[in-house]
Design brief:
Trefoil (Acidic Fibroblast Growth Factor, subunit A), two-stranded antiparallel sheet, alpha+beta, single chain, 8-stranded antiparallel β-sheet, 20% strand, 289 residues
C-alpha cells in the first residue's frame, strides 16, 4: 500500500498487536503523547486521523502528528501539536509498504517503544529496520470499514496497483522510489489570516505555494467583501464565487512574479487559490439554497 487515503478518517493500526494510534487520555492539548491503545468503535474520535498534504490530523483535537522538538533522530517522542505552515519538516508523513515515515527522512519511521504490546505504550520515531520490524508496521483502516475477519487484518480492498484510491499518493524521495505527489488541499480557513500576514505584511521568502495560494485567496475574499460593503451591495455566494476566484488567480500571478516561480508552480498555485477562495467565501458568506 502506498499513501494515505485522500479523504475521510481512518485508524492507524499496529500490525504487531492490533492496537491503534491514540492520544494519551484523549487530550486535546498540544504536546500530548501519542500511544497505542485497543481500537474503539464508539467514543473514538481521538483514535481517528485524516491526511491533508502529508499532515496526519486527529479528529478530536484537530492537532497533527509531530516529532517532539523537531529533532529528526531515533528515539524521539511522537506527540500531537499545532499544525505549522512553515518549517513543518517534523509534521509531514508518508506511508509505504506498511511503514509510516517522516517525509524529510524516510529512514525514520513510527515505532512502538520497546516493541511492547502494553496498552499506553508510547509511539516514537526510530530508524527503519529491515527485519524483526512488526512494531514498525501499520495498517490503515478506513473508519466505517467492516471489521477484519477473525485471525487476520485482511479485507482492505484490492492490491495497491489495482486500487485507484491509493494510486498517485506516494512521495518523491531518493531513499524510496519516486511516485507522483498528491494534490494539495487548501490550507484551513483558520490559518489563512496568518498566511496572509506572512505573505503580504512580513514578506517572508521561501514560502510554500500552498501558503501563498491560501494568502491570495484570503486577500481576494476580504477585498471583494470590503468592496461590496463600500458600494452598499449584498454579498451573495452564488454571484461572488466566480469574481473572487478571478481575483485570487490575479493575486497569484502577481505573487508568482515576486517569487520568480515557474509556469507549472504558478498554475498549481492558481488552482489551489481558486479552490481556497470558494471555501473561504463559504465561511464568510454561507450558501443560500
Amino acid at each position: 500500500m502506498q499513501g494515505f487515503p485522500p479523504s475521510g478518517y481512518f485508524y492507524i493500526k499496529s500490525l504487531k498487536n492490533g492496537s491503534v494510534l491514540d492520544v494519551y487520555n484523549g487530550e486535546t492539548s498540544a504536546d500530548t503523547a501519542i500511544i497505542i491503545w485497543p481500537q474503539k468503535r464508539n467514543d473514538n474520535e481521538n483514535q481517528l486521523w485524516r491526511c491533508e498534504d502529508g499532515f496526519l490530523i486527529n479528529k478530536k483535537s484537530n492537532l497533527v502528528l509531530d516529532v517532539r522538538g523537531g529533532d529528526l533522530k531515533s528515539d524521539q517522542s511522537i506527540v500531537q501539536y499545532d499544525r505549522k505552515m512553515t518549517a513543518a519538516h517534523n509534521q509531514r508523513w508518508g506511508y509505504r509498504d506498511g511503514f509510516i515515515c517522516i517525509l524529510a527522512d524516510p529512514r525514520l519511521v513510527l515505532d512502538i517503544k520497546g516493541g511492547s504490546d502494553r496498552d499506553g505504550t508510547k509511539v516514537i520515531l526510530y530508524s527503519r529496520k529491515d527485519h524483526d520490524n512488526e512494531n514498525q508496521k501499520w495498517i490503515i483502516e478506513p473508519f466505517g470499514a467492516p471489521p477484519p475477519p477473525a485471525g487476520g487484518f485482511g479485507g482492505y480492498g484490492p492490491p495497491d496497483d489495482q486500487n485507484p484510491v491509493y494510486q498517485n499518493q506516494g512521495y518523491q524521495n531518493p531513499v524510496w522510489a519516486a511516485y507522483p505527489p498528491p494534490a494539495y488541499a487548501p490550507i484551513p480557513y483558520e490559518q489563512a489570516e496568518s498566511a496572509h500576514k506572512e505573505v503580504y505584511h512580513e514578506r517572508k521568502a521561501h514560502l510554500s505555494h500552498q501558503v501563498i495560494a491560501g494568502a491570495a485567496a484570503y486577500q481576494a475574499v476580504k477585498s471583494y467583501i470590503r468592496h461590496q460593503e463600500r458600494e452598499g451591495k449584498e454579498v451573495r455566494f452564488e454571484f461572488a464565487k466566480k469574481a473572487i476566484a478571478a481575483l485570487a488567480a490575479a493575486e497569484v500571478v502577481k505573487l508568482a512574479e515576486e517569487h520568480d516561480w515557474s509556469g507549472d508552480k504558478k498554475e498549481q498555485a492558481t488552482r489551489e487559490a481558486e479552490r481556497a477562495a470558494e471555501q473561504y467565501l463559504q465561511r464568510e458568506v454561507p450558501r443560500s439554497y
